[in-house]
Amino acid sequence: MPSPESKTRKAKPSAKALPPPSPWSTYHRKRKLTHLICFLVFVTLPFLNVMRFDIPKQRFYFAGYELWISEFSIIFFSLMFLMFLIAGMAMLYGRLFCSYLCPQMIFSEASLAMEAWLQKWITRRFLSWPSGRRVWLFRIAFYVLVGLASVFLAFVFISYFVEPRDLFWRLMSLDLWTAGGISGAVVTLITFLDFAFVRQRFCVTACPYGYLQGMLTDGNTLLVHYRDEGKDCIECKKCVRVCHMGIDIRDSPYQIECVHCGECIDACVEILGKVGKPGLIHYVWGEKGELLGQKAPWHRRLGLRDAKRAVVILILLFYLSGLTVALSMRKPVLVQVAPVRTTMYQVTPDGRIANHFRIRLANRSSRPAAVTLSIEGLPGAVISPSQDPRRLEPGQELQQEFDVVVTKSRAASEVNHFKVVARVTPEQSPDEFPMTFLMPVERAP
Ligand code: SF4
Ligand code: SF4
């Protein structure tokens, strides 16, 4: 809390004013640039299949891979990696995610900026109109603009879950009857209400990340902190006026509303710079820690300041390596072979011995594929029916049963080990399945 004494303090006569900070060195500009990049990423991700969860097709698109829901290991590693990434970011860097990367914050601020710009423009352009009429015009224009933006944002958002071209045609045909059309209309309405009325209130009332942040913050987490040992605050309150979350950072660095955006830092630097003093609000590593950017070993400057953080980074690396290995081992065409042991073996009418097997194929690629089976390590064995090659269209799954048949031989034993080898075209390394062939053994009388 600022002391009562500081509240009444007047500006001391200026030393030489500091040169104004370059616009690109302010957190405001850095944040707006990050917002623009995030917006472009948000809009392009689903169209390039970088990350998309297609619910109707039950596919998870990740880094250009089309993953099937059955590919548990990859989905598991991706989700665990993302979960620890969010938790680790919250522990190390506080709410920087909220202020720099979160779409809710980006669009809320854009909506506020558009509202302010539109208000000014209408006042200037229709100066001669009575103020009541101007207010009505402003309201209608603002809601129309937010409505159009909501349709676009809802379209991008739903594209994360439904194929974008399919969605586009639904939108064009004003589909309000199917499940997809109804959810599109509901998301558009929620987006409109959010960005027209709720905006940053969501961050302090409903957002789970804000509450999670409260649990993960400790004495080493990055914070925005007001420090005024020299009693230099001139009570201009610019830091309060620029705060879009409506708080006074001088009260406490632990206010749940604070999203660590740094706008108050810029404001204070600008004001106190005019009287030749440095700003009083800073990014700091914990309430008692050093300032961001202050000289320190590299790992401390990155936020790796204790064993807990090192463990989180190690867990992140573990899931990232698991994900990389799972992706590198992934084959576009899945082949699984298993024995069917309802009977141990069968004797065919022509006296040969047959063992029964099942093959499961899934073409997870976007090209047609063909699978050819062969037997290794079991002399004279044939596959019946052969059906080679088994052809699969993109996305097709196939399950078949087949026999491995051999001529009865005195040399064979009761249990014979062999391999079923599956070769896939287009090129994929062969899949080998070690199997056993059971046969009756004729013992010498
Ligand atoms: S902007 Fe700086 S000087 Fe002005 S009230 Fe805030 S902390 Fe004090
Ligand atoms: S107090 Fe400062 S850092 Fe926190 S939300 Fe307000 S302007 Fe941003």
Describe, in plain words, how this protein is organized in 3D.
This protein has 445 residues and is α+β, with helices and mostly antiparallel strands. It has two domains: 4-325, no CATH class; 333-438, Immunoglobulin-like. The protein has 14 helices and 14 strands. Strands 6, 7, 8, 10 and 12 form a five-stranded antiparallel sheet that branches. The protein has a four-stranded antiparallel sheet with strand order 11-9-13-14, with no helix packed on it. A hairpin with a 5-residue loop joins strand 7 and strand 8 (353-363). The chain starts with a helix and ends in a 7-residue tail after the last strand. One iron/sulfur cluster is lined by residues 224, 242-243, 245, 247, 249, 258-264. Residues 226, 233-239, 250, 267-268, 271-272, 280-281 line the site of one iron/sulfur cluster.
Fraction of residues in helices?
40-55%
Task: Estimate nothing, just give the exact number of structural domains.
Answer: 2
* Main sheet record: 5 strands, antiparallel
Number of helices: 14
Spatial extent as radius of gyration: 33 Å
Strand content of the residues, in percent? Answer: 15-25%
The helix/strand class is alpha+beta
Q: Unreliable stretches, pLDDT < 50, 5 or more residues?
A: 1-11
The rough form would be described as elongated
The ordered string of helix (H) and strand (E) elements is: HHEEEHHHHHHHHEHHEHHEEEEEEEEE
Mean pLDDT: 86
Summarize the SSE layout with pairings:
Elements: H1 4-7, H2 27-44, E1 51-54, E2 59-62, E3 65-68, H3 72-93, H4 96-101, H5 103-125, H6 131-159, H7 164-172, H8 179-198, H9 201-205, H10 208-216, E4 222-226, H11 238-242, H12 263-273, E5 281-285, H13 298-301, H14 307-329, E6 333-339, E7 346-347, E8 353-363, E9 369-376, E10 382-384, E11 390-392, E12 397-406, E13 415-425, E14 428-438
Helix pairs in contact: 3-14, 5-6, 5-8, 6-7, 6-8
Bound molecules: iron/sulfur cluster (2 copies).
